[in-house]
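SAMPLE LOG
Freezer: B-3
Tube label: C17
Construct: single chain, 654 aa
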Amino acid sequence: MILSTIRRLSVLRFCRLVRAAAFLILLPASAHAQQHYLFGALPNLPVTTTTPNAIAFDVNDSTMVVGQSSVGTGASGLRAFSWTRAGHMIPIPPLPGGENAPSVAKAVNNSGQVVGSSGVAGGSHAFLWTSGAGTIDLGVLGSSASIPPSAMGNGINNAGTVVGASTTTLSIGHAFIWAAGSGMTDLGTLGGPTSVANDVNDSGVVVGSSATASGQVHAFVWTQGSGMVDIGTPGLGGTDSRAFRINNAGVVVGQARVASGEFHAFRWTSGGGMVDLGTLGVPTFGGPTSSAVDINDSGQIVGTTTITGVVGLHAFSWTPAGGMVAIGGANAFAQPSAVNNIGNVVGTNFGNPTEAILWRSPQQDLIMDFPGAGTWMRRGTVWSQLHSRDAKAFGVFGEFGRDHDDVAVDFGPGVGLWAWTSDDTWFQLHSLSPTGMAMFDVNGDGDDDVVASFAGAGIWWFNGNTGEWAGQLHGLDPSSFLTLDLDPAGMELVVDFPGFGLWTYAGGSWAPLHSLDVTSMIATDLDGNGTDDLVVNFPTYGVWAYMNGTSWVQIHTRQAKRMAAGNLDGNARLDLVIDFGPGVGVWVLSNLTTWTPLHTFATENIVVADLDGNGKAEVIIDFGGPGLWSYEDGRGWLQMHSLSPAAMAFGRLH
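STRUCTURE (predicted):
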């Protein structure tokens, strides 16, 4: 029976997983899940305003996020927050006297110690907060009748050393370092009146910027032995520079003015000096600019950059292997603030409302079935067996705020649908073998539900809140279905009913999308505007895309045998990979304009995933007899396995 008993706790856990594209039997997974960095809004604190806002400033290696959220109206309604996967967003109590003043959390270390600034009577002070000890006042360097007390903690290392900026009796701001045993110490300046310290690594090396005697602003590095050292001369050819972050290898990042007058992101080392990271091109208006805001211990840098022919600044990730690549699509409102050592990035979407956001690490793993050899996973270059049974199909589902995905595995009739988690735990989801499945908020309660099709029984949904199969969505069996975001109204379920064409389901209603049936479909963002596009193959009529939920555009007149999509070149747009069959082969459509041949051989399956985490996805193709191969731009073809898998999918399983 469709309503057969399911292990209640296991399915409840599964239903908390965030929506992902459907997995279809022996078809490639939807490209909607192939965007290298996926972001979702962290929930705001309870507010009394009509437009809640939140900004994320830092994230530690446990994905604990800190920042500022609105809790009321005006500046006094802004409160420092801490967010964790387990406890979600909680306010950080202000210092005494700051109950009606704004506060902000700027940095967090791996012990969960948070620093920032809180209002006090007559001004503001830097604070140090932990969940156990509460909010501790770090004070100020000084103040005067004409300079009210003000201090901000900007950075903290894993030893609990804090850096920031504070007023003095003579200045509106000097860089400081604070330690539990010695308190707050003035680091001075580079000859000018002001300075600010932005970060400190575990060796106690401090970075920031300072005014010089000539009136310029230069990046500096400070150590206990050498004091404040100017690293902004000669810089990148311009006059000013600022250092924002330093990792434990001593690599510094920030922004510096170039000779043409624009600011560019830089990477500085003691041996190599300041190196220009460049930009992703000249925007629609203004000159090419960029800024590096953080670096992790693997050398991954995040920041903002202009992109050729696109308005505004856009998020980027830079690695030594992959260089600078755009993340988060072409959303000019999404700005990163920090990256942790597992590659998760936090920042802010400056829309309406303003939202704290979390990007997940780009590196992905493969999962596949080799007939007769069972179910296997490839992580990096290492193969490991997940199960001795052969699998019929896979679905990969990611839970927001977690650092890995879980896998739904259909072992076929008699065994049913099971889930595997990265702690190597298996549990059954259903005794029947589905013909397709997706995650979708059916009843609009904000929680995702399981949508599954069963042969001869149509489409059913499982309520994630009640833990019960809630009913039938449709009595017809679909040939395929997936979820995507076609318009600002929210996610839609797109279903192909054989003989009846494409239909969408949202808000409790079915609506026709096209009268023709499709042989394959994927969800992706071809124009990089943050809204999904539906790409389908219509028999006889070729490949078409339903762009931004408004109009159909023909991609190619030929029939597509298989399709996949991903960010192959590291820009803000996803590229389309299509196998047109024997005699034509595999081609890539880049930026909706340029077709490039990839291979002449016939394929058995195609997926696109970023296996090395460099921001440029690999095309993974099962060629049948020749085995499994991968292609990355600039690296060429590499054989991954001599065997041909029966099914494969990808996700962040580590």
